[in-house]
Design goal:
This protein is mainly α. It contains 27 helices and 2 strands. The chain is globular and about 95 Å long.
């Protein structure tokens, strides 16, 4: 790997990390180029082997497809897993399964870096407080920019140094590993995607009978060798039947009874359309840029309001009061939840125009809204929509085709950018009523139910593709050889991968096992399985 390749991978890796603002915030960064599937394509392009990069990325993505970071919690970090694990595996010529195994310790290393960043960033928060108090408002709203110093240090330099200086030794290290240990690592990497799919099922499946949709998708691929597009269409059809025949009355009531925001206008506005767009982009780019344990996203709200403070107030004292109101803790899912900053902007404008809106009403409103919108956002976006799109993309790239990652990029950004713009503007125009309409209508539940059916079916099909287990037990009598693999394939193809995926779901959803503990269980299964030659 040349120094320029290592530098470029490190730069894109930093820009794709969870707290980096430069690629439309998390939308084009963490949720797009930060996905191992897309990262594999980018790394493959840099290293001159796109097909291998995509196949490596797809294998790692299968493990982390169900990764959700609720409330800022970070069970695993796919940034180091992708931008260190994939290039090292490619340079060393390792199989995809070993790239998956290599990604696990790297992901935990990334988690340590995340918690280091959010701890150190608390210093920036108190610096912002002092700047506001001293009336240095321009500097105060730029604190999220300065906060990128810590994120850059813990992302760019480790990715560059490990890739550039560590790559030559990976091949040598691989050759020193005994064959039986290599078999254990390959087996561990092959069965490990089951944990990712089990984690995803724990978010999708609300009732046990919904596992039937997963089994349908699995059987379509494992038994009838169906490609992913027909599996998706069947999932959509099942979701339609569920809504049409079981919940039609409820859905009609939701649509007919929910409040409407059409025709809502504001006269005598202080903010122009350009000002609102400026506030929207400020929020979308900088919402996690100085994420910290103490205030979470509050500095980003301060920056957003700082972009329009000159339009709302004339005196420094009024501007100071505006920004100081929003220094307390704030945390929500920043994309679906961007309706909340929109509501805040609308309320602050009304207050600046002389409406009888106290500081307490604004603070209490944002506090009351951030929790429900965080739950909605986490369940619908990283918990449902992103895994469904990734699953379809993985199905389109079984042979390393570039179609899969391009499909994900185009569909995800093509839907999420307009959606976030609309949500932010709806919150700004309609204020608290817009959020109440969503929460009271039950629309979120209807979408979640349909997405669970589609997602469960598609995940079943993808898990049949990416979870693998080569069985070694055989019975020999003279020239006759009876293979356990052949017997099980005759009963139900890929039965062991199915059972492993259901085991992961059971451990995570029913036994409340952590990701780390579940990884350890599967590591023990791989080691013991190879020792007794159940796996080969």
């Amino acid at each position: 790997m040349s120094i320029w390749q290592a530098l470029l991978i490190a730069l894109i890796g930093y820009m794709s990390s969870i707290y980096s603002p430069w690629l439309y915030g998390g939308l084009a960064g963490w949720y797009t180029t930060g996905r191992p599937f897309v990262a594999g394509m980018i790394i493959g392009l840099i290293l001159g082997d796109i097909k291998t990069g995509i196949m490596m990325g797809a294998a790692v993505q299968a493990l982390y497809i169900g990764l959700v970071t609720p409330g800022g919690a970070m069970p695993a970090d796919v940034n180091f897993a992708a931008y260190i694990g994939i290039p090292l595996a490619m340079i060393a010529g390792l199989p995809s399964s070993q790239a998956v195994a290599l990604s696990v310790p790297l992901s935990f290393f990334g988690v340590a870096m995340v918690y280091l960043v959010v701890t150190v960033n608390s210093l920036f928060v108190h610096w912002q407080d002092r700047l506001i108090e001293e009336g240095k408002l321009k500097a105060a709203i730029n604190v999220p920019v300065y906060g990128q110093i810590t994120n850059f240090i813990v992302r760019f330099f480790p990715i560059f140094l490990i890739n550039y200086f560590g790559a030559p030794y990976i091949s040598q290290l691989s050759n020193l590993i005994p064959p039986i240990v290599q078999t254990m690592l390959v087996t561990f990497g092959s069965i490990l995607p089951a944990v990712g799919f089990g984690l995803l099922l724990s978010f999708i499946v609300k009732e046990d009978f919904e596992l039937l949709y997963f089994l349908v998708g699995f059987a379509l691929v494992a038994v009838w060798k169906t490609s992913i597009v027909p599996v998706l269409l069947i999932g959509v059809f099942l979701a339609y039947l569920d809504i049409r025949y079981k919940r039609a009355e409820r859905s009609v009531a939701m649509v007919t009874e929910q409040p409407t925001t059409e025709g809502v206008t504001k006269e005598g506005l202080l903010l122009s359309g350009r000002d609102v767009r400026k506030a929207y982009f400020s929020w979308m780019f900088w919402n996690l840029s100085v994420q910290n344990m103490e205030r979470m996203q509050a500095p980003a709200i301060v920056r957003m309001l700082g972009t329009v403070m000159d339009k709302l107030y004339n005196t420094v004292e009024e501007k100071k009061a505006l920004l100081a109101r929003h220094t307390p803790f704030f945390n929500t899912e920043p994309n679906i939840g961007c309706i909340v900053p929109g509501v805040i902007l609308g309320m602050e404008e009304e207050k600046a125009r002389g409406a009888d809106i106290s500081d307490e009403i604004i603070i209490n409103t944002r506090t009351a809204l951030m929790g429900p919108l965080a739950g909605i956002g986490d369940s619908l976006l990283p918990g449902t929509y992103i895994p469904i799109l990734l699953s379809i993309g993985l199905g389109l790239s079984k042979d390393g085709s570039i179609v899969g990652p391009l499909f994900y990029i185009v569909v995800f950004l093509g839907t999420m950018i307009p959606l976030t713009m609309w949500l932010f503007n709806m919150g700004y125009r309609s204020g608290i009523n817009a959020v109440e309409a969503i929460l009271a209508s039950g629309l979120k539940d209807l979408i979640s139910d349909a997405a669970a059916i589609v997602g469960g079916t598609v995940v079943g099909g993808i898990s049949a593709t990416y979870v693998a287990a080569n069985l070694g037990w055989e019975f020999k009598s003279g020239e006759m050889v009876i293979s356990l693999q052949n017997i099980l394939d005759g009963i139900f193809p890929s039965l062991v991968p199915l059972l492993l995926t259901l085991l992961a779901y059971y451990l995570i959803a029913k036994r409340k096992s952590t990701i780390g503990r579940t990884f350890f269980v599967f590591f023990v299964i791989a080691v013991v399985g190879v020792l007794v030659r159940f796996f080969v």
